[in-house]
């Protein structure tokens, strides 16, 4: 979050490539969102078993080039399960009959001999769908083990469901030649979400997925393996031809499919994606990092920006001391006290929250300045709710309402705000992803006045997106 110029999100036409390899390691039609804070897209949010069933049916597909190891076994089970889902779901959604992919191919990227889709696989740590021969392939020693580390067995299943989504696109004839890669990638994320909803409902004979911690882990996998953050120069030089979308966009597409099924995925096109993006920044300016280190000055500047964007007759005061409140518990690193109308900030703890780990394989690597600032903004939006006078602040619904209003505040910063202290506060590319990472890992920006978040990360991110794409009134109607 720093000073920036607004970059319009133009998407260039890209030719269709034979190989769709989209799980890069780091790494509009509105859909229904259910406001029950203890449910996930209408399903009860519960922790429980997630992964390959101990009594799983054997795979129906064989793997070429396999080493016979556990990773390839999970991959074969995953594709077999995905195909069982589409055997029923395809004809219910699209005209024609479903056709399975032609082959499953595994490789070791340290092996000089392997090929996939006519490409040597040495050094190719990825997974992909080959439109030339309708095969799916994966790297079994780097990419898939990392996915399993991040999201368990279903981390592997998720990425292969995404790759299978590219086969579904072609069979359903969703996209014309020249459709932006960005559209196809988000359709595939959506198809993966629709399959995993089927698993979460208990329909899979091979996998289980809980709607609490299990689904959180799958969402973490989606975020971890997003595209690296591009610069303006990257987009101008490449024409955005290989762009897959931000973590916020990809996780949104996944949720569309999980919530509303495969039919929602067909509604994702260039117009819908552009409408959903609006003026949200998608790339960093030349020389820009997108990071504004958390300090007393930056905290004061962000709160001043909130006062300008969301003026109150009695705005909250800032305290850098200990949080002490008669009618709310502390929620460090940022707490709001309704009794005194004060926002208390533990500055060292907030600085730690807003600092990435530096390890690309660690989920905290997705943290950044807006992981911290989104929490700060959420406590200001708690003061906005207090000013309404008739809203309950200490409930699960209040937590979702706060996440939604934090989304509204985030979008409001797409326009630069000049503060009285001479700072300029504005959203930069990557800030939405940092907020989403925080919502999934700690949930503080979706906490009620006591800092208590709803249990499901899916619901927190869903509520945040409602705000990003909406306004205050929509949040108050959705989460009364």
Structure description:
The protein has about 475 residues and is α+β, with helices and mostly antiparallel strands. It folds into two domains: about 40-275, Neutral Protease, domain 2 (Orthogonal Bundle), CATH 1.10.390; about 295-480, no CATH class. The chain is built from 16 helices and 16 strands. It is elongated and about 65 Å long.
Key features of this structure:
single chain, 480 residues, alpha+beta, Neutral Protease, domain 2, 2 domains, 5-stranded mixed beta sheet, 3-stranded mixed beta sheet, 16 helices, 16 strands, elongated, disordered N terminus, signal, protease, Uncharacterised_pept_Zn_put, hydrolase
Question: What proportion strand?
Answer: 5-15%
Shape-level CATH architecture of the largest domain: Orthogonal Bundle
Count of alpha and pi helical runs: 16
Indicate the CATH class of the largest domain: Mainly Alpha
Radius of gyration: 22 Å
Q: Identify the overall geometry.
A: elongated
